[in-house]
Design a protein that fits this description.
4-stranded antiparallel β-sheet, 16 helices
Amino acid sequence: MNNAVAGFSKLSKEEKINWIAKEYFSNPTEAITTIKQYWNNDAQLQQLHDEFIENTISNFYLPMGIAPNFLINGKYYSVPMVIEESSVVAAAAKSAKFWSTRGGFKATVLNTEKIGQVHFLFKGDTAKLQTFFNFIKPTLIDSTENITKNMQKRGGGILGLELRDKTSELDNYYQLHATFETKDSMGANFINSCLEQLAKTLKETAQDYTNFNEAEKNITVVMSILSNYVPNCIVRAEVSCKVEDLAEKKIENPEEFAEKFVQAVRIAEIEPYRAVTHNKGIMNGVDAVVLSTGNDFRAVEAGVHAYASRTGQYSSLSHAKIENGIFTFWMEIPLALGTVGGLTSLHPLVKMALEILGKPSAKELMQVVAVTGLAQNFAALRSLTTTGIQEGHMKMHLNNILNQFEATAEERKAIAKHFEKNTVTHAAVVELIENLRK
């Protein structure tokens, strides 16, 4: 295939599949069979999934697992997680069980403020623009009344609106910087609708403002869009216990473990190369719950990593300390989540995930997601500072390797017995399979 295709979006689903199979596969029939294997047998349910995005040809499956025994603020949760990486769900469940007997997790939502901006160009006197903004600010907010009235009934809406001068960084560049409360909604459509109305009103009122000259009246709106950086939409998750209470099978010396654990976190605080991998482990837990509940994991990822860089250097999201014989491990992260709107009322498994979580509010979901990220980070650091990360991971990965080589039941039994006393590596598994088949 080395040519552009015209009118692809106008083709039927079958036509799209046939074209893809013919253009990209040496065996088109086999490709079509694979694509259709992942269709849902329920035609109505399949149509629902088809209409989530454009140009749909099939469904891409990810495993959905459960990590039970999360004790959060005195309440037990079984947490739905959607992820493809081996050992993540098992690690989260192990951490949950560990901390359930040591007081559980504490979680607090510190703020839920979200942000949107109208980016515009103004060629004129900044002082005149500020005076104009002060004069029309009530008009700007009033112009969004039809959009915000239902949100206001739920306790949300526009919290603040300010003019920001960015001309020192880019010629003629200004912002209307708006803050919002969207309650249990993710709020993207709500915020963007408000911003577009603010932009329209800004342009229209500038045209009639007599103190502006002709150049100043012609405000150019570049774009109006929410921000996925939400440094004032923060949730804190933490665990703590006496150092001696950290003792368990693989932590025979809890004092040594606690000190090593704190040092591992401090390394991630000052070393960006380590911090990226450290925070990726946190996001293993965060993203898995965000996905299972139909939220936007890309927005969460972008916002979280920007927050990790807020001091000018990328750093650890989590922190640890030992004070007066008490070990404390905590994290504060930005999470803009919703439990109404979007896929939450459409995707059957998203609805099921929210049901499993007890139909949480957005604030409660923020707490669950943050705690799962912290649990995942604890599990990783516990492994890294004790047995090493690969021992547990490779045992979980073993099954994937066996599936890759379509191992028989007899082969699986022999391989499992062999690795009871030997280290699991991909090369070792492949070699053993080859030997068994000679």
